[in-house]
Amino acid sequence: VSDPAPGSRRAAWALVGAPVWAGPERGIVGNAVAFDSSGRVAAVGREHDVRARAPRGAEVVRLDGGLVVPGFVDAHVHLRACASALLSVDADGVDSVGRLLDLVARAAAGRLPGAWVRVAGFEPRVLGRELMPTRRELDQVAPSCPVGVRHRSLHAWLLNSAGLRVAGLSRPAPLPRGVLVLRDEAGEPTGWVMDHAGGLRARLGTAWPPVALEEAVAEWSRIRLREGLVALADASASNGPDQLAQLAQWRARGLLAQHVAALSAGQAPASTALEVPARKLLPEPGSGPDPAMLLEAWGAGQGVAVHCADLEGLGALLEAVERVPAGCRGPLRIEHASQCPPEWLPRVARCGATVVTHPGFVHAHGDRYLAVERPLPAGWLYRMRSWLVAGVRLAVGSDAPAGPVAPLTAWRTAITRRTRGGQVLGGDESVGPATALAAMTAWAADCSGLGGYGRIAEGGPGAAVLLEGEPLAGVGHGEVRVGMVVAGGTIVPAGP
Ligand SMILES: [Zn+2]
Questions:
Q1: Rounded CA separation 364/398 (Å)
Q2: What pLDDT score does 127 carry?
Q3: What's the 432 CA to ligand 1 centre distance in angstroms?
Q4: How far is the CA of 333 from the centre of ligand 1 (A)?
Q5: Nearest to 111 by CA among 149, 142, 148, 150
Q6: CA of 477 to the centre of ligand 1 (A)
Q7: Ligand 1 centroid, distance to 17 Cα (angstroms)
Q8: Within 10 A of 282 (CB to CB), how many other CB atoms are there?
């Protein structure tokens, strides 16, 4: 772990006057933390001990209550898609085909012919109704620009005719893995293209000049830093050597303020400037990974992270892992594990897996989950408490842009299980405030190759967040806000 950026020097200083929650193992260790001139934690504990051990001449910043916690870590996020979403037309909350077409028409009016209109965050399932706009409807409002509406899940697109042409999908031809062009009864493309593994990305070309994308990356990163996010794992299944190099370069050039790890597509490159904690496997929906693939990755000393967004997929994953002799298994992350019946909880625990879950989904999508007539109990969805009771390791990720990013939104939802609309989804799955913090700091770091982050410890990265209010009392005891963020051993300037 190499933080802060090489060459940066600053004066030593100390933060005193608020209890310091150093991580799940040590809990509250005192009321002071000192940072040295290289941006690392020089001392943490009781004020007189920290003052005695702080570097000579350290300036003291006195706080008036609150709680100092480790900087937040996001165990599952898609950086490129987040930056892209910032540049796209935002379809969050669109609840009719007419409103979607209005957005597209307005964006297309300002585009040169041939320039992409991209729409992000579109969710066609709205409280029991299904919105299914078509290629022809997009053509009517945007005849001369390619239009790409990305499904909120990131696993499908709606393209207009120009978009299909640019993507080389207007004529039958071999398709990348996981790409499926939906057709009507006449055999014509409807415009909907399933893109399970991100294979369509290259076909769609670049919608933005590289400079615009980089500016969006930097803006996204600054917003997240002010919310307290100091480290993250990019979980994109399309992370080949070029994408990993790009992430490392964004970090090295200071576009990304967060420390970055990444899951890799296929074998991790022999040398990379990023931590690559695991290889991402993306089985087809409803199926599990090939046990031979698990053996190969674990045999090569790599961890494995398996995308698992449905019940059938979890069953198949468990069978595949159980076929690998226990002695040949390695680190396993289960991404999402969206649904799990009670009787499978101990099987997941026996696999030694870490479940990477998204309380933010309960907040943002919970009302829709509850409105959908589903054969499965709501309590099986995005569990937290049951995983821990069964002995499964747990970590929180945002899955942004598929879910909301603000760490405090996820933290509150982990405790309350409340949806955006105020309903409770799976109330038995709520966890306590400190457990929710652990899953968003130390445990997220542990499964992401970001050891050092997620805890406040001497010699560790100087990353911390001051939460104002009484966070350990839970929610409902006054407001909890991010009052200060420390990254790289310095205070992050407040907004905008
Ligand atoms: Zn994801």
A1: 11
A2: 66
A3: 25
A4: 13
A5: 142
A6: 33
A7: 39
A8: 21
User: Long-range contacts of range 406-409, CB-CB < 8 Å, 24 or more positions apart?
Assistant: 406/227, 406/360, 407/72, 407/74, 407/227, 407/228, 407/229, 407/440, 408/227, 408/228, 408/480, 408/481, 408/482, 409/360, 409/363
Q: How confident is the model at residue 3 (pLDDT cuts 50, 70, 90)?
A: very low
How many CB atoms sit inside 10 A of residue 172's CB?
A: 10
The rounded Å distance from CA 335 to ligand 1 centre is: 7
Across 129-143, 203-217, 379-393, least confident range: 203-217
Cα(48) to ligand 1 centroid in Å equals 45
Q: What are phi and psi of 183, to 5 degrees?
A: -125, 155
Task: Give the number of other CB atoms < 10 A from CB of residue 252.
Answer: 12
CA 300 – ligand 1 centroid, Å: 24
Provide the token pair at 454.
Answer: 């997620």
**Token output for 83:** 């930056």
Question: pLDDT per residue over 141-192, tens digit each?
Answer: 999 999 999 998 888 999 999 999 999 988 878 888 889 999 999 999 999 9
**Cα 486 to ligand 1 centre (Å):** 27
Helix 79-87 to helix 210-226 angle (10° resolution) is 100
Asked if residues 333 and 278 have their Cβ atoms less than 8 Å apart, the reply is: yes
CA geometry: angle 204, 206, 207, nearest 5 deg: 95
d(C-alpha 226, C-alpha 221), whole Å: 9
Distance 235 CA to ligand 1 centre (A): 6
- The rounded Å distance from CA 264 to ligand 1 centre is 13
Give bridge partners of residue 305 from the DSSP assignment. Answer: 280, 333
CA of 78 to the centre of ligand 1 (A): 6
Task: Count other C-beta atoms under 10 Å from residue 185's C-beta.
Answer: 5
Mean pLDDT, rounded, for 14-19: 96
Residue 123, both tokens? 């969710």
Q: If you measure from the C-alpha of residue 152 to the centroid of ligand 1, how many angstroms do you get, rounded to a whole number?
A: 11
Distance 360 CA to ligand 1 centre (A): 13
Where does the pLDDT of residue 5 fall: very low under 50, low under 70, confident under 90, or very high at 90 and above? very low
Closest CA to 196 of 280, 89, 117, 317: 280
pTM of the predicted model, to two decimals? 0.92
Of all residues in the chain, the percent with pLDDT exceeding 70 is: 97
